[in-house]
Amino acid sequence: MLALASCHAASRACSKISARVGVRGRLLRCSSNSAAAPAQAPIEAAARTSGGSPPEYLLRVYQWAYLNPANVPFLDHHLVVNAILWGNADRLMDSAVAEFAPGMRVLQAAAVYGNFSERLARQLGEAGQLTVIDVADIQVQRTREKLAPYPWACVKQGDLSETALEPVEGVCCFFLLHEMPSEVQRRVVQNLLSAVAPGGHVVFVDYHRPHPLHPLRPIMSGVFRHLEPFAESLLDTSIRDLAGDAGDGFTWSHETSFGGLYQKVVARKR
Ligand SMILES: C[S@@+](CC[C@H](N)C(=O)[O-])C[C@H]1O[C@@H](n2cnc3c(N)ncnc32)[C@H](O)[C@@H]1O
Predict the structure, then answer these.
(1) How many angstroms does the Cα of residue 134 sit away from the middle of ligand 1?
(2) Angle of helix 116-124 versus helix 137-147 axis, rounded to 10
(3) Candidate from 29, 60, 176 with most ligand 1 atoms within 8 A of CB, to mutate
(4) 177 Cβ below 6 A of ligand 1
(5) Structural domains of the chain, ranges and CATH numbers in brackets
(6) What does pLDDT average to over the chain?
(7) Using one digit for the tens of pLDDT, what is the confidence trace for 173-190?
């Protein structure tokens, strides 16, 4: 099934379906966040999903963090994100958001706890367009609530490893890849690259292997071992390598911060 869900940043609900092709899957739901939105060209995001349930790895490893309605309201705070990122949340978020200019049409790959989506929406401004795609219902709903004051933003449900995406000028992937098995990382990276129009770019911010003498290295090794079982595979592979041939048409830049624990990778489509 190929379904095109139109995201209208206007008084029309952006759940309008503009096209359907195929036999499997379901339509993406997308709501405009305000009735007072300016009339703008819609973001058209095509989506192909395989069904209603979250991916196996999310259910098995991250159910407690992203799917459990009892836990999510406690975890979804900037203070929590900042604690997890050792006080670096603002720096990392600012650095990612600054890669996008006002007026751009941007896809945010998955929900992020705290105020990341609001920051990105404010950066793009009302002349811009932000689409967030997340696979989990509860995350979609919460992000819609956060973005309600920004009518140029909308949130859709979809699996980024298989959702067919319409072209955008920018993609922001903030701490998503380390939470996926390596094969899914590969599919997501390649899919996000496929969404970028010529001249556009994809920004990945995620964990990186810290310097051997980093004082937090033993603690982070424990965290990765017990809570983030897919992170090690990301530390062992460059995001450029995950892209495979799909990365050939891009110019790649890479920087690390905080003793190498974090990386920002930017892939610019030539
Ligand atoms: C962005 S990542 C982690 C971000 C960061 N750790 C934080 O503070 O929120 C978490 C989100 O990724 C979503 N997610 C995981 N796999 C996905 C997939 N294949 N497609 C779309 N969203 C996915 C989860 O539902 C969850 O909301």
Answers:
(1) 7
(2) 50
(3) 176
(4) no
(5) 54-269 (3.40.50.150)
(6) 85
(7) 999 999 999 999 999 999
Window from 35-49, 189-203, 236-250 with minimum mean pLDDT: 35-49
d(CA 28, CA 54): 14
Q: In this structure, is the dihedral angle defined by the CA atoms of residues 202, 208, 211 and 217, taken in order, positive or negative?
A: positive
pTM: 0.85
Whether the CB of 110 sits within 6 Å of ligand 1: yes
> In the prediction, which pLDDT does 53 show?
87
Helix (H) / strand (E) element for 78: namely helix 78-84
Distance CA 98, CA 32 (A): 25
Name the token pair of 166: 């319409």
Structure tokens, 48: 């192909």
Please report the beta strands in the chain, taking only residues with DSSP state E, as ranges in sequence order: 2-7, 17-21, 30-32, 43-47, 105-109, 129-134, 153-157, 168-174, 196-207, 250-257, 262-269
Under 8 Å between Cβ of 236 and 69? no
Strand-by-strand arrangement of the 17-21 sheet: 17-21, 2-7, 43-47
Encoded tokens for 46 = 């095509």
pLDDT in tens, 227-238: 999 999 999 899
Q: How far is CA 239 from CA 134, 246, 247, in A?
A: 20, 12, 9
